[in-house]
Write a structure and sequence with these properties.
The structure is a homodimer.
Chain A: H1 10-21, E1 27-33, E2 44-45, H2 49-57, H3 63-71, H4 77-84, E3 91-94, E4 100-101, E5 108-113, H5 114-119, H6 121-144, E6 149-152, H7 161-173, E7 178-179, H8 182-188, H9 198-202, H10 207-217, E8 223-225, H11 231-248, E9 257-260, H12 265-278, E10 285-288, H13 294-302, E11 309-312, H14 314-317, E12 328-335, E13 341-343, E14 360-366, E15 372-379, E16 390-393, E17 401-404, E18 410-413, E19 416-420, E20 423-424, H15 431-443, H16 447-450, E21 460-462, H17 464-476
Parallel strand pairs in A: 6-7, 6-11, 8-9, 9-10, 10-11, 15-21
Antiparallel strand pairs in A: 1-5, 1-12, 2-4, 3-5, 3-19, 12-13, 14-15, 14-18, 16-17, 19-20
Helix pairs in contact in A: 2-6, 3-4, 6-7, 6-13, 10-11, 11-12
């Protein structure tokens, strides 16, 4: 396991020394949350917790790390000595991977002495921001494909090895049927797929020989790339010739077909479909790649393109139209001398950027059909009972209220314990199980909130107690200059 | 060193088995190159070669790797046995890191048996695409700052750990004065910087106490974050109070100042400058962060913002407006039975996507002032002599010609050997030396080609011999359907 302890911003370490030196090492609560769903969408998918767990479990400063920090001439020996025995002793709560998440919900909540909680900020954000971004993008792409299989194959355009490895993991969690990335396949036991590239075709004297050779080698996974020279005049006819020869040789044709990788995919796919059908290959798959994303797939579907399998690279693995998730990590409470948490708030001229104070959890509210009705951010010391009426109100436009009667709703707390006193108490399910769970999660969301453009916003309400706490703090801080 | 051997697309492995089984393992030449400069710019910066070298040096299939591949039921034992002893035996040539590059120039050229050259495609592209992208973006941001220092601090928004680690490396190579990323600092001996976050301020009873405590701890690097509560009414006055107390205590104030992280940076910086100056702190630094990129920095400069130090996060580390470099890896030649390379070409309906065939190198042509005049892609068996006239012509609009007389130009071959027969023959300079080299590289480029929007294109010409070779192949392949 890689030691990522120094994968942090220098200021975390200078602040740590500050907390250490001033004995201001109170237990605090930090929340990691996002403020906007990527790509203008109606939801996001939590992802990356498994790697956060690895990171926390492996958190320690090696002798080399200490020597390096010492060389910076910023840190005193007493602090460096403290780091030698550093490990995480706090609690972490999180929303499990594959879960739908909405803005301002704590995806990860860290309760720990501030010196520890501060260190882990950067890596937690790095990991959660990346994987939640790619999972969300992948869910959008899969949604556009309306049940067709989406293959992730963006490794070569990913932003470095980890972006490829963990991006592919996130893509599979959110619904991709597989990835081209062999290392991801090995690490997470997810399906890997792929056939051949243009270079295969070009390394043979002609396209037919290349196809024929490939078909002999892989008769059970024979998807031929038909656009190296001329898709409709050379590629598809040569593919049909090879399929015919396979049929004549008595080979059972299954999982076979063609891949289009350039040109007008609507036109080429319809023409190719007709050519394949006319030759008696009605079950030949037509797959496509070539700068695809959710918008292009949606458009091709609308145009009646005869494509049922999609390979998506660059635009998915980089979330090209929105390549940062924007998750932040904000102080929500500081423990007072009496052992009780004092809620804290971060102000901003932009009221959307004002944080929610206190020790919080999130309830998901479902209607009687099991569809997601709203989310409710509450304080952990509140209790909810499905046998009582539930009042929901909008935290900005507070006059917008809904009263749910018993029987009209169910509640699910979506935050779970992950670390207790520095010990991991959570086991990440296998990736393919998370994929199944995520599929179920997405099924609880109305299409109106899943559509690609201008989706219906899911309500994320605050409990009355949390709302009042926030208002009180806002009033206290409204004259900050007199402090 | 991490074993990234399986960091490849599955199809590379299925093709490898195909080459292995059909004894079609000829020596070939592949070129990695890009087709468009990122962000609509006039240039790109080559970066990532050092990690490509590590990857190639460490290329081997472990027993676990073999067992995993075997479990896929795609590969036969004879091929898996071959992989057990696999290592790279070929040659690699590349354009060194920090060098200006332009579309269609081979950044990396691999000459190896196709079974080896095919495997390394994905990882080489992944690494070079990522780092060249971030280096290019960083060069643009530094250009906009007109000599002010740019700090990279995007780790928390980078697409995974590697994107943060190697993105910061690329950013420093292209001119950033430092990074917040401690691990990058440790791995590559580059400056790390940073002070404190809003959480530092919020963990104290009030802003003044937080500032004062920080100043006591770090009197030599006292940059105070002033926007937690109210920048002009609370943050700047409290910072001035602390600076005054430091002055009164006889502390020499150096490298001190404030950081703005929200609000209208032009307005706040001018107001803060006046407040600091009026209090006698004319040398206090005003640094700024908050969703900056090259366009915003350029605009703030134009508006006369009183900022001289910039922290750039998300937009740089993800190259947000253009998060993929788009480099490709294309077959350029296959060795014939006579031991000579047969040039290969990849056709496309888009003539910009047609590849350049053959075994190529790149010459940079300078004028007598040492400024970059044009690049010339030539075949390696051509020789050039600065004592002879040099004819340059545009490969698309061939009537556009320039004849340079001896004394009017100098030539520099920018591709260097990196591996010979599988042995590394190149030593990567320290990152800060590459930064110096890159600065010199950028100084050879006219401002007209460096400007952010609508830059003058640098001419990349083909030698007459390469041009003729390409035309001949195009004519051969113009009737591909009869093959």
């Amino acid at each position: 396991m890689r030691n990522l302890t120094l994968l942090t911003d220098l200021y975390e370490l200078t602040m740590m020394q500050g907390y250490f030196k001033t004995v201001n090492n109170r237990t605090v609560i930090f929340d990691a949350f996002h403020r906007n769903n990527p790509c203008g969408g109606g939801y996001a998918i939590a992802c990356g917790l498994d790697q956060v767990i690895d990171y926390i479990n492996n958190l320690h400063f090696t002798d080399d790390d200490i020597a390096y920090l010492s060389s910076l001439n910023l840190f005193d020996n007493d602090f460096l000595d403290y780091l030698k025995n550093f490990h995480f002793t706090g609690d972490i709560y999180a929303i499990p991977e594959g879960t739908l998440i909405f803005p301002r919900e704590p995806i990860v909540k860290v309760i720990a002495p501030i010196i520890e909680a501060q260190l882990v900020e950067t890596a937690i954000l790095n990991i959660i921001n990346h994987q939640s971004l790619i999972a969300t993008k992948a869910a959008r792409v899969c949604y556009a494909a309306k049940g067709d299989g989406i293959m992730e194959f963006g490794l070569r355009r990913a932003q470095g090895p980890d972006a490829g490895i963990y991006g592919a993991r996130a893509a599979v969690i959110a619904g991709c049927v597989g990835t081209s990335n062999v290392l991801t396949g090995q690490m997470f036991d997810v399906p890997v797929k792929g056939t051949h590239a243009h270079s295969w075709i070009m390394s043979f004297p002609d396209e037919y020989t290349a196809f024929k050779t490939y078909a002999d080698l892989y008769p059970n996974a024979c998807i031929l790339l038909v656009d190296t020279y001329d898709t409709l005049r050379s590629g598809v006819p040569n593919a049909i010739r090879v399929f015919k020869e396979m049929r004549e040789a008595g080979i059972e044709l299954k999982g076979y077909g063609i891949r289009l990788d350039s040109g007008d995919l609507a036109y080429f796919s319809k023409k190719a479909r007709k050519m394949l059908d006319d030759a008696g290959f009605e079950d030949a798959i037509i797959s496509a790649s070539s700068d695809l994303d959710e918008y292009l797939i949606d458009s091709l579907k609308t145009q009646g393109a005869a494509i049922t399998s999609w390979g998506v690279g660059t635009n998915l693995i980089t979330a090209k139209d929105n390549p940062a998730f924007g998750g932040v990590y904000k102080l929500a409470a500081v423990m007072g001398d009496d052992g009780k948490f004092i809620p804290k708030i971060k102000l901003s001229e932009n009221s959307e950027k004002i944080t929610n104070p206190g020790n919080k959890t999130v309830y998901r509210v479902y209607d009687t059909d099991g569809m997601l009705k709203a989310d409710l951010i509450a304080l952990t010391d509140e209790t909810y009972d499905e046998n009582e009426p539930l009042l929901l109100f909008d935290p900005i436009e507070t006059w917008k209220k809904t009263l749910l009667q018993p029987g009209e709703y169910t509640l699910r707390e979506i935050i779970v314990p992950v670390f207790k006193n520095g010990e991991c108490v959570y086991t990440t399910p296998p990736v393919m199980d998370i994929q199944k769970y995520c599929k179920h999660e997405l099924a609880t969301l109305w299409d109106e909130s899943k559509r690609l453009i201008n989706p219906q916003e899911v309500h994320v309400d605050l409990s009355k107690k949390l709302y009042d706490c926030k208002q009180e703090l806002l009033n206290t801080y409204s004259t900050p200059h007199i402090h």
